[in-house]
Amino acid sequence: MSCMLWFAFSVLLFLPTYEAGRQMPKLSDKKLCADAECSHPILIARAVQDYYPGDCRFIPIRQGQLIYVYAMLKDRGNLFWAGSVQDSYYGQQEARIGHFPSSVVEETHPLMPANTEVKTTKWDFYCN
């Protein structure tokens, strides 16, 4: 028993350290939100076409899905919004906020004005 315990401990010591996630390039330095924490949705949008993400910063979207939009990127990233997909059955899809092109959705319900300009951080574009 002690040999197996010693072996397991030895293996853990020699395993390379693993850093979960990775930093991806920023799409923009600023974003527009409803509040300073970007915690309130700006609007609800409906997907007019499917979108298959190119990397982990983006979320997949199927035509007809509802998306809660929390931020609109500015400057060089103004073609992208950040939001969370809501499926037809609550809880059917894991809640994850990610980016998507604003051209694949149509605004259906404005909720709050996006008057607060917020600087993006490395965590806005961090991949798990």
Descriptive report:
- By secondary structure, this protein is mainly beta.
- It is 10% helix and 34% strand.
- Strands 2, 3, 4, 5, 6, 7 and 8 form a seven-stranded antiparallel β-sheet that branches. The protein has a two-stranded antiparallel ribbon with strand order 1-9.
- Strand 4 and strand 5 (80-86) form a beta hairpin.
- The longest helix is centred in the first third of the chain and has 13 residues, at 2-14.
- The radius of gyration is 19 Å and the shape is globular.
- The two termini are 37 Å apart.
- Residues 3-19 have low confidence and may be disordered.
Keywords:
single chain; 128 residues; mainly beta; two-stranded antiparallel ribbon; 1 helix; disordered N terminus; MIA
Percent of residues in β-strands: 25-35%
Average pLDDT level: 82
Strand count: 9
How many helix segments?
A: 1
Q: What is the element string, with H for helices and E for strands?
A: HEEEEEEEEE
The low-confidence parts are 3-19
Q: What best-fitting shape do the alpha-carbon axes yield?
A: globular
Termini separation comes to 37 Å
Estimate the helix proportion, in percent. Answer: 10-25%
Cα-atom Rg, whole angstroms? 19 Å
SSE-based structural type: mainly beta
**How many strands, what sense, and barrel or not for the largest sheet?**
7 strands, antiparallel
Keywords: SH3 domain, Signal
Organism: Xyrichtys novacula (Pearly razorfish)
Domain SH3: 40-110
Pfam families: SH3_2
